[in-house]
What we know:
Elements: H1 50-55, E1 59-63, E2 66-67, E3 73-77, E4 80-84, E5 92-100, E6 105-114, H2 140-159, E7 168-170, E8 180-186, E9 193-197, E10 204-206, H3 215-218, H4 224-228, E11 240-245, E12 251-254, E13 265-269, E14 276-280, H5 293-301, E15 306-312, H6 320-323, E16 327-334, H7 337-349, E17 355-359, H8 362-365, E18 375-378, H9 387-396, E19 400-405, H10 408-418, E20 422-430, E21 440-447
Parallel strand pairs: 4-6, 7-20, 15-16, 15-18, 16-17, 18-19
Antiparallel strand pairs: 1-5, 2-3, 3-4, 5-6, 8-9, 8-11, 9-10, 11-12, 13-14, 19-21, 20-21
Helix pairs in contact: 2-10
Amino acid sequence: xxxxxxxxxxxxxxxxxxxxxxxxxxxxxxxxxxxxxxxxxxxxxxxxxxxxxxxxxxxxxxxxxxxxxxxxxxxxxxxxxxxxxxxxxxxxxxxxxxxxxxxxxxxxxxxxxxxxxxxxxxxxxxxxxxxxxxxxxxxxxxxxxxxxxxxxxxxxxxxxxxxxxxxxxxxxxxxxxxxxxxxxxxxxxxxxxxxxxxxxxxxxxxxxxxxxxxxxxxxxxxxxxxxxxxxxxxxxxxxxxxxxxxxxxxxxxxxxxxxxxxxxxxxxxxxxxxxxxxxxxxxxxxxxxxxxxxxxxxxxxxxxxxxxxxxxxxxxxxxxxxxxxxxxxxxxxxxxxxxxxxxxxxxxxxxxxxxxxxxxxxxxxxxxxxxxxxxxxxxxxxxxxxxxxxxxxxxxxxxxxxxxxxxxxxxxxxxxxxxxxxxxxxxxxxxxxxxxxxxxxxxxxxxx
Length: 448
C-alpha cells in the first residue's frame, strides 16, 4: 500500500521517494574461540631431588673419594654429595645422616668397614671428642697432599683458576708447633675445668695435654685448673683464656689472671736480609706455626723493591717490617689498636723508620689507596676482601698485589674478579695448621 506524501497527499504507486528506514543488518558473530591445546606435563624426573631421596635414609654405606677444603671427606649416595668429618680417602664407611639439604647431606661415621690407605690411629687421646684438630686420623704426609689438592680443586671449581706451573707446597713440623692457643673454662672455685670445645658444639672437653702446642704451652695445661680455681664463692675464672709463647720459654696470657704471666713476649723470625724481632701479647693475632712464620713472610714479601708499599690487615707488622727493607715507605693499616701499637713499637725496635702505621679499618681506609702503587699485600680474615676494598684495588691497580689467605673459597671468589686486571704469577700453599683441614695460600699477582 502506497504511503502518503508530506502534506497529506498519497504517494502514487510506483513513485520514487524516500522509503521507511531499513533495519541495519545484524553484526556477524565472531567465529568460536579455539582453545589452545593443553600442554602435556613434563615427565617426572628420573630421580627426585636430593633432599627427597635422603629424607627416608638414616644410615648408608659409602666410599670416600677425597678430602674437600676444610678437611671433610666427600662420598656420594646415588650421586648426592655426602660430607663426612674425620673420614679418609679410600675409607668404606657406614655413616648416619645428621643433616639433609636440597643438594647434599652431612653424615657422621658409625663404623669404618675398610680403612683407606692413609688412615692411622689418632695419636691424641682427646681427638675423638675435641674440636681442636680435624685430621689426626691421617698420616702427616698424606694430610699435606690431600689438603693441597683440595685447595687447588676449590680454586678451579669456584674461580676457574688453574694453578701456575711453579706451585709450591711447604710443610713444617706437624707436632709441637703451635705458639698460640685459645682455651675455654667451666666451673668455678675448686671445680674449674680447662680445655677445648667439642667438635660442632660449645660443650667443654677438658684436656691435660695437647701435642700440637709448643712445649712451654703444653706444660701449663695440667696445672691450669688449680691456678684458675679459687675457694672464694664469688670468684669466677675467665670463660676464655688466650695463651701465646715467645722466645726462651716466655709465655703470656690474656685476660690478666693472678698467677699467670702476662704482657709482651718477643719472637725472633729468620728472614732474608737477617732476623727480625716481633713483640706481641696473647691478645694479638699472630701466625701460629713457629717453624713456618719466616717461610710465610719470605714468600709473601718476596724480592721486589720500589718506592712505596701498603700492608693491609697488618697485624703486629709481620709483613710490614721486611717490606720496609725493600721499599722506602711502608703504610701498615690495622684496625685493632693493640696490634697497631705493637707494629709501631716493632718498627722502632728494629730500626725501620720508613713504616707508617694507620689505625683504621681497612674497609674505611680503602678510598685512600693511591693509584698505581708499587706494592700492596692483603691478608684478610676468612671472609676475604670486602666489596669496597676489592673495588679500590681494581680501580687504583697497584703494580703488584700479594694475597695471603686461609680460606680457599673466598680466595677463589676474589681472584676470579681480580684476574680481570691481573695475572697470577705464583702460588704457594703452606701447611701452617697441621692436624687441621686448613692451609695458608700466598698468591702473587702482577698487572696484566
